[in-house]
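Troubleshooting entry. Yesterday's outputs looked truncated, so today I'm pasting the complete records for two proteins to confirm everything comes through intact. If either block looks cut off, that's the bug. Protein one:
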Amino acid sequence: MVFNYLKDIIIMKLECTCYNITIDKWNKMMEGAKPINYKWLKNKIRKHIPTLYNDLALDFYNPWQDKCKVTKTHYILVSSAIEYFIKK
């Protein structure tokens, strides 16, 4: 009997931010972006990327929380007017 333990592992990683990519890449990464529930995204980041959660101090109020989005391949967290592209 073979078990596939890796199927339940969720890998999320910070791929880039809006200030270190070209406008062409930004446009491509934002393609098809839809709003996402900020509280849900924040909790997912807390669970899977705790260092990013702590570094961005996401436990405090974020005035850009309504700008967060999701695409087929990325979660887009906006904090301090910077878009963080997190690979799903």
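Protein two, checking that the full record survives here as well:
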Amino acid sequence: MAAVTGWNLHVLGVHTALLLLHVVFVQSLIVADVAGRRRLWSVGWLCYAVALVAEPTWWYLPPLVGALSQLLSMGRSLGRILRPRGVATGILVQDMLRGAILGGVLWSDKFFLFLGAGRDFDVALVYLCLQPAVVAYCYYFAVTAPRVNTEIALFQTVLKREGMASLRDRGRTLRRLLDASLIRACVVGVAGVIVVVCSMALMSPEQVPLVLEVCLSSTLFTVLTLLSYEIDHVGDSTTALLLSGIHVAIAAALLLKLADAVAYLPLAGVDLVLCALGLLLYRKRWAAPEYSFFWGKAMSW
């Protein structure tokens, strides 16, 4: 960051503090999310948005207010933060690397573009084009994933109690639910792309081709991310990491070499192929979830 921007130590310190505050805010949201308290989770984001609109120059206010809205609801249980449970370092590092690769499909390209182009790209335009992908991603995990996760947990619970005929019926129901969730997320993403492209056509027609390229590629990033997550969910972590790792490696090569947003067009072509491959593997892995989950449990023994 210092090498690319030329920021002094004071600015770097402020930037680091801003990052840490956002880490605290995001971690505080996880408690409400895991507990299924969707309203409290929404209140956190609402507080963040109100603070950002009210005082946009107070950089510390949005994540601080958002985190406080979550921390106050924790009450006495917040005291347990002083007695954290130990976690094996190896497992922690392994999970962090897995998260970086799987999550890097949607987010790493901005980092590589920043490293390659420095300040010589339209930050606002790139992040505007990212919004349809982010909305689709959030829609999937905030609206559709809770029901899917509940059904998967129920399926795993009855795996050892019910007969194969019953499990096949449950497996078909689960697969249809998962397919519908992915399709709905894609529809939300495409609708977002249409809104952004039409808006830019009215405000800045000459930028429509670039906006379309970045919007479509970002939406493909989300599709690949969701497919990889569900492939990993059914127990095939290696394939999910491989698909995600290929994207991250190619994104790094293209964006660092071209150092411009035009790199999103060839990257979209690469991800179109990866998404097609991911879809085939997803359908294969979820063709018989009763067998996939059974063997996953057997291998864990």
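Both blocks look complete. Sanity check on protein two: The chain has a mean pLDDT of 87.
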